[in-house]
Write a structure and sequence with these properties.
With about 280 residues, the protein is an alpha/beta fold. It contains nine helices and seven strands. It has a seven-stranded mixed sheet, with helices on both faces. The two termini are about 20 Å apart.
């Protein structure tokens, strides 16, 4: 079950991709299938060991194109063990709501992302998350749990403050919001409750059901995503650098234009970073 929409976050074969806070590795696996050179990073050693096993199984099964590579490593999101401007793409999915220093994480991602590179970040959406918090402290108030609820404009503002340029947003997983509301109401760990079991079966049908059932559940989710989508997804690019000699040439040209106009309306050249086409 992917949260990132790869039509809005295009990958090219050979792209270096970081799945930061990869968890079970769902986005890392998809990037590997698409021919990327993937590094899945998480601080949880058990999850990294499991992701590493799946990468090996995918390689043996020939699920990734020739030339693609994948590695799973333990690491700290606030001190990434990579050189500056190393990655073409970065995904951080359902992670930032857990980390007290979210600004520090954004600064690190900006550092290791190439100019012109893309970032996809997903967090729990404000309204569904607010309902979960109201129904259950157990849902969020635990070690490593959720420590904040983002509003969409707040997250976009933090991306901009980090030097990134947002270019699209959307919501995802609307069918999962009622599921978590039910779990919060009956007990987060009470998977045997009849309403939880019944709704879980609906989610299973959505993933592995017959084509007719899957088409109905997916249509329902598309319709409900703008209203109760469980995740808020934002895409941003890192601005391209302008070479110093080009900046100087632009200033000279601007100066000539100023002279030709008698000194009126002087404007300094600015660097425009091209973001991928299409917005949510």
């Amino acid at each position: 079950m992917l949260t990132v929409d790869f039509s809005r976050f295009p990958l090219a074969p050979g792209d270096r991709v970081l799945d930061l806070g990869c968890g079970g590795g769902r986005h890392a696996f998809e990037c590997y299938r698409r021919g990327a050179n993937v590094i899945a990073l998480d601080q949880n050693a058990e999850e990294i060991a499991e992701v590493r096993k799946w990468f090996a199984a995918m390689e043996q099964a020939g699920e990734a194109p020739e030339g693609a590579s994948a590695a799973a490593i333990e690491g700290n999101a606030l001190a990434l063990p990579f050189e500056d401007e190393y990655f073409d793409k970065i995904i951080i999915s359902e992670v930032m709501e857990h980390i007290p220093d979210d600004k520090g994480v954004l600064d690190e991602m900006f550092r290791v992302l190439k100019p012109g590179g893309l970032l996809a970040v997903t967090v729990p959406r404000w309204l569904p998350e607010k309902i979960c918090w109201a129904l259950s402290d157990e849902y969020h108030a635990n070690e490593g749990g959720h420590i904040r609820i983002y509003r969409g404009d707040e997250l976009l503002g933090k991306l901009k403050d980090a030097g990134l340029e947002p270019y699209g947003t959307h919501h995802a997983h609307a069918l999962h919001s009622p599921y978590w509301w039910i779990k919060c109401a009956v007990g987060v760990d009470n998977d045997k409750a009849l309403p939880v079991k019944a709704y879980h079966q609906l989610l299973v049908w959505d993933i592995v059901g017959t084509p007719v059932i899957s088409s109905l559940t997916k249509a329902a989710e598309r319709a409900l995503n703008p209203v109760i989508g469980k995740s808020f997804v934002a895409y941003a690019s890192k601005p391209n650098r302008v070479e110093p000699d080009r900046v100087e040439a632009g200033r000279v040209e601007a100066g000539r234009g100023e002279a030709g106009r008698g000194g009126a309306d002087r404007t300094e050249p600015t660097a425009a970073a091209g973001a991928p086409g299409g917005t949510a």
